[in-house]
Amino acid sequence: MTVVPTLYSICFDYIKVHTEEIVSLDGIPYKPVVENLIDFLVTSEVPLNSSILSVISDSHSKSLRSANSRWTQLNYDSKINSVYPELKAISLKFPKFITHLKIGKTDLEDNDIFLLSNFTNLKVLDFQQNQNITDRTVSYITTMSLNISNGRGLPYLEELYFDHVRGITDKSLKFFAKMTGICYLSLSGTQVTKEVAETYLTSQGYRISSPRPQDGMIGQFTHLKMLSFIDRLSDDIVPAGMRTRYFRSTIDTRRIPLLEFKRDFTQPVLKKEPPKAPEKRPIKRQRLIATDFFAMVESELANDSRD
């Protein structure tokens, strides 16, 4: 018996074959259509087309953030070669597709952090054991989270991990306080003073917390497929002779006290505005009638007789 294809399967097969021609997925449900499309793109033998990833993120940003898909999580932890070329390529091609980013023990430095300004759907940012960054990185992230313009910035950033980053000190605390969207902050093994952090951050609405599971952060994006995508980029995007330095951690993390904070968000309490004074309506000018005219004439005659 021949199986008749459903309308859904016909539409989905068309989308898979013609991804380069698609400019919008508005009106297409994220589940199951777009979700299945993403699985197909990153698991099949079909070459990765960055334009469709950009289209998906433009049409379904909210769904990507709430779905917590393993395909939107990138893990560059302990990458032997420079992470900069790939991260720059993604920032130019499909940055909104990424919701979780782990770049600990990589070659990224403070001045590279502005690459992240295009990752507007980023929720989790993990710098654990990256010894090339300092308090300047925190100030840059704060700027990007507070200044959202021209489709750039980090408006949805919720979790920050700086465990065992020795360049993070007490100076960063004032920046963490400014980022009102952060609900989890990990500073274990930094140069942040435990007593100072606990006193200051609790005054800003944080409370001491146990370590939070990071949803795997396993970076399921197929690495070979990503490399083939990077190889196709022009030299002006990934110039030759890029840095190859990286950091391999030798820190003993077993005896370092935890310094984890979390913060819950509630609906803001709106201040009641004072009651408005009743508007003074303009007095309507009454239409004059005959008796009014007679009264006016009598008044004029009386004034003449006085003169």
Provide structural commentary.
With 307 residues, the protein is an alpha/beta fold. The protein has two domains: 1-67, no CATH class; 69-262, Leucine-rich repeat, LRR (right-handed beta-alpha superhelix) (Alpha-Beta Horseshoe), CATH 3.80.10. It is built from ten helices and seven strands. The chain has helices spanning 7-17, 30-43, 50-59, 61-67, 84-93, 135-146, 173-178, 194-203, 223-231, 290-306, and strands spanning 73-75, 100-102, 124-126, 159-161, 184-186, 207-208, 260-262. Strands 1-2-3-4-5-7-6 form a seven-stranded mixed β-sheet, covered by helices on one side. The longest helix is centred in the last third of the chain and has 17 residues, at 290-306. It starts with 6 loop residues before the first helix and ends with a helix.
Number of structural units classed as domains = 2
Radius of gyration: 31 Å
CATH fold topology of the largest domain: Leucine-rich repeat, LRR (right-handed beta-alpha superhelix)
Name of the level-1 CATH class of the largest domain: Alpha Beta
Oligomeric state of the chains?
A: single chain
Give a short account of the largest sheet: 7 strands, mixed
Average of the residue pLDDT scores: 78
Backbone shape: globular
Question: What is the chain-wise order of helices and strands?
Answer: HHHHEHEEHEHEHEHEH
Uncertain ranges:
240-248, 267-274
Could you tell me the strand content as a percent range? 5-15%
